[in-house]
Amino acid sequence: MKILIASDSFVYQHNGVSNVVMAMANGLRARGNEVRVLALSNKRKSFRDGDHYFIRSTKSGFYPDVRISFAHHDPLLDELRAWKPDIIHLHTEGSIARMAYHLAKKTHSPLVMTTHTDYAHFLFGRFRDTLPVRKIMTGWGWMVYRPATKVIAPSYKAEHFLQLKHVRDRITVIPNGIPLERYQKPVTPGEKEALFRQWEMEDNGCTLVMISRLSREKNIEEMIRFMPALVRRVPKVQMIIVGDGPDREHLKNLSEQMGMTDRIRMTGQVPPDEVYRYYAMGDVFVSASTFEVHSLSYLEAMAQGLPLVCRADESLLGVLSDGENGRIYRTEEEFVEAVSGILLDPEMKSRMRKNALERIGAFSEERFVDNICALYEEVLQQT
Fold first, then answer.
1. What is the DSSP letter of 166?
2. Stretch 321-337: mean pLDDT
3. pLDDT tens digits, 72-115
């Protein structure tokens, strides 16, 4: 099968969409499919790197790391059109979407789309449920997703995004998957000790870990504001935040204001191949985000056997079962109770660790790609 995967985010943007696209491309190739990826270049010229096609682009100015392209004609697009894919899978709604629509029309290839972002939440925040916003999002969604034969929602939460209102009859829920072998690599006691020493921390059994883009929609500020209350309950508790983003300086300043600089370490971006080591440092994974669709970081943490403590959100359905592989909280008091309960009860922590490792098998890259292939076959039979 010849498959073209199209996405604005790939390789040069470190985010969940880029990771999903890479996992999908690698998994489909491992099954003998011919896979090419169409994405935006990180410069103002187009180039090809093997089976990866990058179209010239420029910074958008709208949001950090977001790029746009005004290219309508490009030799690389002509090459993909001549290649004539059997199916096109589009992951984003930006500049690459326009190119994917055009290629699908010219090659008569069926188009599958995956939705990754709750744009009503991202763009309008607390106003997302107002009538004007609902009309804007449903109208925009109809235009964007209308060309798709099938639309994939990574979670049951995503299935109900406003932009998908008019295409609900075409939605299939397929949870994301991760390459378990990447996140279940063993970390020796010496390696772990060196990492704690690097960040001037102690391996004291009370380490919280968060791996996230440092941006306002991730609500990391809440975690920092909750730390003083948690310290009063668990005096040895500490937190390491891995990742970078536009909110880094704000979060660093907030940590200083809260008197938590000796408790919180912010590493910045780390190489993707090193991320598993930082999960291994943790005793509990924490997140305050309600922006997630089907967070890969939750799955990665589970692959390392970490109990999860996350703010209540529909994206947790099927991933986190309260009291089994972690805890769900809604208030500061519940957060402190949840985290301290796990840290101060070795038996509970061990049980949740075991449950996390058992549950993660359902989110392997292999199962994810199996489900994608089954959907492709269904689409091709219909066309």
1. G
2. 98
3. 899 999 999 999 999 999 999 999 999 999 999 999 999 999 99
Q: Please give the full DSSP string across 46-108, using - where no structure is assigned.
A: -EEETTEEEE--EE-SSSTT-EE---S--HHHHHHHHH--SEEEE--SSHHHHHHHHHHHHHT
11: left (phi over 0), alpha (psi -120 to 50) or beta: left
- Claim to verify: residue 285 and residue 349 sit in the same structural domain: yes
Distance between CA atoms of residues 244 and 275, nearest Å: 13
Q: Taking residues 217-235, report their average pLDDT.
A: 97
What pTM, to 2 d.p., does this model score?
Answer: 0.87
Predicted local confidence at residue 383, as pLDDT: 80
Q: Is the pLDDT of residue 330 over 80?
A: yes
- pLDDT single digits (tens) 254-273: 999 999 999 999 999 999 88
- What is the helix (H) or strand (E) element at residue 181, kind and residue range? helix 180-183
Domain identity same for 142 and 78: yes
In terms of domains, do 239 and 164 share one?
A: no
Q: Which residues contact 263 (CB under 8 A, 6 or more apart)?
A: 227, 231, 237, 238, 239
9 touches 91 (CB < 8 A)? yes
- 245 and 342 in a single domain? The answer is yes
Distance of CA 99 to the CA centre of its chain: 24
Q: In sequence order, what are the residues at sequence separation of 6 or more whose Cβ sits closer than 8 angstroms to the Cβ of residue 277?
A: 187, 191, 192, 195
Question: H or E stretch including 207?
Answer: strand 207-211
158 and 281 assigned to the same domain: no
Range of the domain at 263: 180-362
| Domain match, 8 and 61 both | yes
Residue type, 331: T
Q: Are 316 and 326 in contact (CB under 8 A)?
A: no
- List 4's β-bridge partners, or say none: 36, 88
Provide the domain count of the chain.
2
Indicate if 259 and 134 belong to the same structural domain: no
Is residue 197 located within the same domain as residue 301? yes
What CATH number is associated with residue 336?
A: 3.40.50.2000
* Partner residues linked to 53 by β-bridges: 38, 48
**Average pLDDT along the chain:** 95
